[in-house]
Amino acid sequence: MIRHGQASFGQANYDELSELGRHQSRILGERLLHSGVRFDAVYSGTLARQIDTADISLSALASMDSGVPPIQQMDAFNEYDSESVLRGLIPVMENEDPDFKKDVETIFDDKKSFQRVFEKVMLRWVSGDYDAPGLVTWKEFYNYVEQGIRHIMNAGDRGRNVALFTSGGPVSVAVGKALHLTGPDTLRVSWQVVNSSISCFKYNQHGFMLSTFNDHSHLEAGSGQPHGGGLITYR
User: Fold this and answer.
1) Average pLDDT score over residue span 214-230
2) Which end of the chain lies in a sparser environment, N or C, as judged by fewer CB atoms within 10 Å?
3) Residue 128 region, left (φ>0) first, then alpha (ψ -120 to 50), else beta?
């Protein structure tokens, strides 16, 4: 499972790779090429940032004799709609907590305020303790991603190597499924997933297991500088 490159956070269209996101995707493609990996199937969500990351990174593999399988798009692997969650729950939580309301007033001027608001709202969403009609619940999101994972697991013979280009939320659902995490802990995992990072899972008739999580060593190597030299991003 591969998270998309950096999107256009703070821009009118978030669902578009930034220039850095495109660069991260190219570095990812070089990593895949030099590792000698071969994919029997490739999946992605239907969001532009996921599809573009797949196209850019897999283009590095196009010259291989075996080629690259066509990308199969599934909306089960789209990210949760955090904007709708924020719009739905902020008014409820402002009425409950004056300090929370103060943070909301400064979210566009203070990154720490934004982070506090975002984390509190998302954790409230996961808890299910709210009344916001029409809002997709965390359980619905989790179950939909899980259905997509089961579809891939049942779609082919044993020994397949599958690439899935997605977002931090679905990656965290897979980690939560493998490690039997609580909802809040699963959500916290999503906040640690680096853009263009690789998380690997193994599965068989007995279960679904985590092999590696959030590998972004290609970004560190690609920068030639300690700690990724500005290539490591989370939004």
Assistant:
1) 78
2) C
3) left
> Above 80 in pLDDT, residue 131?
no
Same domain, 110 and 156: no
Both 70 and 97 in one domain: the answer is: no
SS3 content of the chain, % helix, strand, coil (to 5): 50, 15, 35
The β-bridge partners of 209 are: 202
Looking at residue 111, its pLDDT comes to 81
> Based on the structure, what is the number of domains in the chain?
2
Contact 30, 36 (CB under 8 A): no
**Residues 207-212, mean pLDDT to the nearest whole number:** 95
Same domain, 75 and 149: yes
DSSP labels for 109-130?
T-HHHHHHHHHHHHHHHHHT--
pTM of the model: 0.92
Where on the phi/psi map is residue 180: left (φ > 0), alpha (ψ -120 to 50), or beta?
left
Residue 18 lies in a domain: yes
Domain that holds residue 71: 2-80+138-230
- pLDDT in the model for residue 1: 98
CB burial string 61-95: b at 16+ within 10 A, e below: beeeeeebeebebbebbbbbeeeebbebbbeebbe
The DSSP symbol for 24 reads H
Cβ atoms of 225 and 164 closer than 8 Å: no
On the 0-12 / 13-18 / 19+ scale of CB atoms within 10 A, 38 is: middle
Same domain, 166 and 203: yes
